[in-house]
Design goal:
Layout (H helix, E strand, L loop, with lengths): L2 E7 L5 E7 L6 H7 L3 E2 L6 E2 L13 H16 L4 H9 L7 H13 L4 H5 L8 H13 L2 H57 L6 H15 L1 H20 L1 H11 L6 H21 L4 H13 L4 H12 L4 H8 L4 H13 L2 H57 L1
Antiparallel strand pairs: 1-2, 1-3, 1-4
Helix pairs in contact: 2-3, 2-7, 3-4, 6-7, 7-8, 7-16, 11-12, 11-16, 12-13, 13-14, 14-15, 15-16
Length: 401
């Protein structure tokens, strides 16, 4: 459907611009009037041109959050969108967002809506963000929606930091243990291998296995390093693919220890965004269509599509979620209560808060198990290897005597 820019007057006499998608130019005036605006003759039938938004470096998630909060604050003071973007484009604290904001300003001045201009940078603004901004523009609730988006993004970023901080210690242990074992196999164990070979000592099976591994590393170290690098590169490329990433997440969610954490995170993501969309005035069917792409990234994309189809045909959300087994039973029951009492947005937000607390406990449990388990495994391997070496050396000493 073609897009047409327009210039119109608000009830307060302010001149505003934007763009609408209609079948033909004859319908532009009708669409502008439906927005509660008075169209200005001469500009309403001009096809909207997409203003280029500078690519630049991809901004950090924190930069987008700061942009959302600052823009909401400026709009709440009564500034128009173009004036707010103009002020922010000169703010050095925005960092990588500055060229993007400048591009957004040019797009808005060219007649595009803010949501349309955001759509030119999908690397910075996800589809859910763009959909909510478009909703805010249509309902004149843009400052409130931007403020809510900033709050939810802040909450999500804090949760990600907690997860990263909790898993950093076990990851450091495993990395340090791998480095120590590699050094031992490459530089230390070969010193004893020559002694065992000179005296024709027969090491036990454990030591023999490590001696063979040490010899293989020394002889084919570059080959193994190239293979490891290729595997890391392949894994990195696979994680960039949404389909492959979703499959890996779905596979990891079946693991006994971390499966609960993945389930809690999926529940938080769905309920938090569902409450945000419904609270902004989006219908349930439209909210699910927006969320299906977001939730498909967590795995089970076909089952999320089935939920959308079921609700679109008139089914209840709780029944569709329960049949697809996508959320925990307690979350489904709570959402059913929200549907029955017409308080789904509020109860969805409460479900998200509840499972966020459970996710914290799951992370603590994972760290409490993985950390000691890593230490026990490392100690067992290193201790067993030392005992094997010492036993072999004692046997050599007895042979010499």
């Amino acid at each position: 459907m073609p897009s047409y820019s327009y210039r119109a007057m608000t009830a307060k006499g302010e001149i505003v611009g934007g763009a609408v998608e209609v079948a033909s130019a004859d319908l532009v005036v009708e669409r502008v009037l439906s927005l509660g605006l008075i169209p200005i003759d001469g500009d309403v039938a001009a096809p909207a041109k997409a203003a280029p938004v500078p690519r630049g470096k991809r901004p950090r998630a924190e930069d987008v959050t700061i942009f959302s909060r600052d823009l909401a604050l400026l709009l709440k003071t009564g500034a128009r969108i173009n004036d707010a973007l103009d002020l922010m484009a000169s703010d050095r604290e925005l960092g990588r967002m500055r060229p993007i904001v400048a591009g957004l300003l040019q797009a808005v001045l060219g007649g595009q809506s803010l949501a349309e201009s955001l759509g030119a940078r999908p690397d910075a603004f996800p589809p859910l963000y763009i959909a909510l901004v478009g909703l805010g523009e249509q309902t004149a609730m843009l400052p409130s929606i931007l403020e809510a988006l900033a709050a939810e993004r802040t909450r999500a970023e804090a949760l990600q930091r907690r997860i990263f901080d909790a898993l950093r210690y076990p990851a450091f242990l495993l990395l340090a243990a791998g480095a120590v074992m590699l050094f031992f196999l490459t530089f230390v164990l070969p010193q004893f291998a020559s002694v065992f070979s000179d005296f024709h000592a027969k090491p036990d099976p454990v030591l023999a296995t490590f001696l063979s591994l040490s010899a293989a590393l020394r002889e084919n170290g570059l080959t193994y390093a190239a293979i490891a690098g290729a595997l890391i590169l392949a894994l990195t490329l696979a994680l960039r693919s949404p389909t492959m990433r979703a499959r890996l997440i779905e596979a990891a969610s079946r693991l006994p220890l971390i499966g609960a954490a993945f389930e809690h995170h999926r529940t938080i993501l769905f309920c938090r965004n569902l409450g945000l969309l419904l609270g902004g005035g989006v219908t349930l069917s439209a909210a699910l269509r927006i969320l299906v792409d977001v939730m498909s990234a967590t795995g089970a994309g076909s089952r999320w599509s089935q939920v959308v189809d079921s609700v679109r045909r008139g089914g209840k959300l709780s029944d569709a979620l329960g049949g697809a087994a996508l959320l925990p039973p307690m979350a489904v029951r709570t959402l059913r209560l929200g549907e029955d009492s017409n308080q789904l947005p509020m109860l969805a937000a409460r479900v998200a808060d509840y499972y966020e607390a459970r996710l914290d406990r799951s992370i603590d449990r994972i760290v409490g198990v993985v950390g000691p388990a890593a230490i026990i495994v490392i100690s067992t391997v290193v201790g067993g290897l030392i005992v094997s070496v010492m036993t072999a050396l004692l046997s050599v000493n007895q042979m010499v005597e």
